[in-house]
Amino acid sequence: MGSPSPFLLITLVLGFSFATYNLVTMVMHNRSISKPIVDDSNGGMFIDPVIEIPESVKKSKTAKLPFHVALTATDAPYSKWQCRIMYYWYKKQKDLPGSEMGGFTRILHSGSPDNLMDEIPTVVVDPLPAGLDRGYIVLNRPWAFVQWLEKATIEEDYILMAEPDHVFVTPLPNLARGGYPAAFPFFYIKPDQNEKLLRKFFPEEMGPVTNIDPIGNSPVIIKKDLLEKIAPTWMNVSLKMKDDPETDKAFGWVLEMYAYAVASALHGVQHILRKDFMLQPPWDLDIAKRFIIHYTYGCDYNMKGELTYGKIGEWRFDKRSHLRGPPPRNLPLPPPGVPESVVTLVKMVNEATANIPNWDVR
Fold it and tell me: CA dihedral in degrees (127, 129, 130, 136; nearest 10)?
């Protein structure tokens, strides 16, 4: 493998003409990365041995490195009840042994305050100009982070980008190591299988498409100064991808995830891939040293405890069943035989809803 190439000056002219933001020339370092760093649950770090990891990164961490928890949200009832559960479990886990969670911010990109301002620490930012997201609400996420980073005073040097449908199962330490952010690898983010599309946004001068990590923006723990550099690029790449019909059709609801991965690679940023960062019921069956439950998928089972695979089950938990308001308190537990991950999720939802005042308020 050849040595990394010299610094490469790249002018990203992405052609977006909306009044709220305009990206200017950026300087990026073209690094050649053959394989992603992977960190296992025991703290071991692995990488292609040709690429040397700095000794400071290899050494075990001793001092605590708190990170700020940040999630983007709207003022829709669907978003609100998830944020309330997420914030409840943040407060439960924050001060337990092993946690390095610091402050918390809900970045509300609806443009005006809502009725959770006194319950959850919140910063209000503007949505994208009308029509620019074209019904893809997640496109507001990078723009929300750009605004928040510009206007907020953030005490911590690291930031966890989280989502409303995350539940902290155990106290979360800082999984990042210096200039290497930590991220969860998604099986459906496949840069090597989408080279033709990605070359529209990641030119050949930047190296192979395998420099693009198989990640989204969440969950990611990253140094604040790195995110300040990446966020504007992430926003502009997201808009450029959405504006390209071929890319928009191919990437669909994961378009913004690809945009973050590309933006990071454009800045020469490589992530430590942590499979133990998160689990996703019903496909991940047990908790086993994981830190976050992500309940993005519906969980449908028959009364024998068997997954019904795409069919509505006799027992189910699906966040999309509660688009217009919060789920009721004391949800029924799943039948015997259902995996630990699903049982734990429902118990944690029930505990949160039992203890959050005025739960039925939308």
Answer: -60
pLDDT at position 159: 98
Residues 107 and 71 sit within 8 Å (Cβ to Cβ): yes
Residues in a beta bridge with 9: 27
Where are the alpha helices (H) located in the chain, listed in sequence order?
A: 55-58, 77-94, 140-151, 195-198, 224-243, 245-251, 255-266, 340-355
DSSP assignment of 136-170: -GGGHHHHHHHHHHHH----SSEEEEE-TTEEE-S
| Rounded-to-integer distance, Cα 150 and Cα 144, Å | 10
The tokens for 317 are: 């938990």
pLDDT at residue number 240: 97
Q: For the chain, which residues score pLDDT lower than 50?
A: 1-36, 40-53
Edge to edge, the sheet with strand 122-124 lists 45-46, 37-39, 272-273, 182-183, 220-223, 158-162, 67-73, 101-108, 122-124
Question: At which residue do the structure tokens 């080279």 appear?
Answer: 195
In three-state secondary structure terms, 96 is: coil
Percent over 90 (pLDDT), the chain:
80
Q: Alpha-carbon distance 309 to 281, whole Å?
A: 13
Residue in 250, 267, 274, 96 with CA at minimum distance from that of residue 188: 250
Distance (Å, whole) CA 67 – CA 171:
12
Report which of 222, 200, 218 is spatially closest to residue 209, judged by C-alpha positions.
200
Residue 37's pLDDT is: 54
* Distance separating alpha carbons of residues 202 and 260, to the nearest angstrom: 12
Q: What was the pLDDT predicted at 61?
A: 58
Cα separation, 169 vs 129, in Å, equals: 37
